[in-house]
Design brief:
The chain has two domains: 116 residues, Enolase-like, domain 1 (2-Layer Sandwich); 223 residues, Enolase-like C-terminal domain (TIM Barrel, Alpha-Beta Barrel). The protein is 33% helix and 25% strand. The protein is built from twelve helices and 16 strands. Strands 5-6-7-8-9-10-11-12 form an eight-stranded parallel beta sheet. The protein has a four-stranded antiparallel beta sheet with strand order 1-2-3-4. Strand 6, helix 6 and strand 7 form a beta-alpha-beta unit. The longest helix has 19 residues. It is globular. The two termini are 15 Å apart. The protein binds magnesium ion.
């Protein structure tokens, strides 16, 4: 295990170290397969109180342990007196360099955890959110053989909704296989895998008849007119994932998709994620809250805002075999937030 790199900056200390998550199953989506996910763990300390954060970098997003540690090395918080200068601190972090959204999220999450610990309250309470409103989380079934899909669906018995990865030529086999095992509602994530709008619409109807409740990123994000056409015709909502990164994207997507999938690693963390959820709501768009493969750190951070969303997809920590934190748990498919301050996690 790599050791912590430590940066002392006035009353703040930032620590970070790379860590590799091991997936419990080979994970396949329309564009790639993998068995590990690189992350960088962070700790932000102020007056002896420590907040935890995490950056997760699935390879297709263009960040790496090297880019994240390089970004974190550039941070200097010595000109801030207090972690309660949250807006100023996060604006400063955002302008250090473009993109680097997972690296920025690693700081944002640690800062929110730290603030919650100083105030001695879980962050969802600080935000005034009711945890009873959190929708059941979906559990993701990657693209696989018929036999493996059946096995994974049987393992996922506690979940009230399953998320299915589609987008190759096995879509109907996958859905038929799942339907031979369970009737639970499904959501389908195509990961930009469909390239033709008429075929996409035909599939939307076929999936609707099999109780698939929404379609995530059906076609490439660049196909804006085609996605808008599909959204207007589709019997089920469409959700932008690859097509929606940050707050600035949300208004442009109104009419192109029914809703957006917010992920902390795409949008720089909890602060902007909450702004996106509220903006989407005000534009009458649906809101989904997703994740990468992450430890219970980033998952528990995202879960603080889950009472605000229509659909939660917070299974990232369940897909790995070496989670190093205790945090949000899933019981009978429901997300249970720990009643601990900040994002509510403990080191195992
Ligand atoms: Mg997705």
């Amino acid at each position: 295990m790599s050791s912590w790199e430590t940066k002392k900056m006035g009353r703040f200390t930032l620590r970070f170290r790379p860590f590799t998550l091991e997936m419990r199953h080979v994970f396949t989506v329309a564009s790639f397969s993998r068995t590990t996910t690189p992350v960088v763990l962070t700790e932000l300390e102020y007056d002896g109180i420590v907040g935890y954060g995490e950056a997760s970098m699935p390879p297709y997003l263009g960040e790496s342990q090297e880019s994240v540690t390089k970004f974190l090395s550039q941070i200097d918080l010595s000109h801030f007196d207090s972690p309660f200068q949250t807006a100023e601190i996060l604006t400063y972090i955002d302008q250090i360099a473009e993109k680097n959204t997972a690296a920025k999220a690693a700081v944002d999450i640690a800062l929110h955890d730290l603030l919650g610990k100083i105030m001695n309250q879980p962050f969802y309470k600080i935000w005034g959110l009711n945890p009873d409103l959190i929708p059941p989380t979906s559990y993701t079934i990657g693209i696989d053989t018929e036999e493996m899909i059946r096995k994974k669906v049987e393992e996922a018995e506690q979940f009230k909704i399953l998320k299915v990865k589609l987008g190759l030529d096995t879509d109907k086999m996958i859905i038929d296989t799942i339907r031979s095992v369970t009737d639970v509602p499904l959501c389908a994530d195509v990961n930009q895998g469909w390239k033709n709008k008429e075929e996409a619409l035909e599939m939307a109807h076929w999936l609707h008849e099999r109780n698939v409740v929404f379609l995530e990123q059906p076609m490439p994000k660049e196909m804006i007119d085609e996605n808008a056409w599909l959204t207007a015709q589709s019997p089920i909502p469409t959700i932008a994932d690859e097509g929606c990164q940050r707050l600035v994207d949300v208004p442009k997507l109104q009419g192109v998709y029914t809703g957006i999938n917010i992920k902390l690693m795409k949008c720089t963390g909890m602060r902007e994620a909450k702004q996106m959820a509220e903006l989407a709501r005000s534009l009458d768009m649906k809101v989904m809250l997703g994740c990468m493969t992450e430890t219970s750190c980033a998952i528990s951070a995202a879960a603080q805002l889950a009472p605000l969303v229509d659909w939660a997809d917070l299974d990232g920590a369940l897909l790995i075999g070496n989670d190093i934190y205790d945090g949000m748990t899933v019981q009978e498919g429901k997300c249970i937030l720990p009643d601990r301050p900040g994002i509510g996690i403990l080191k195992k």
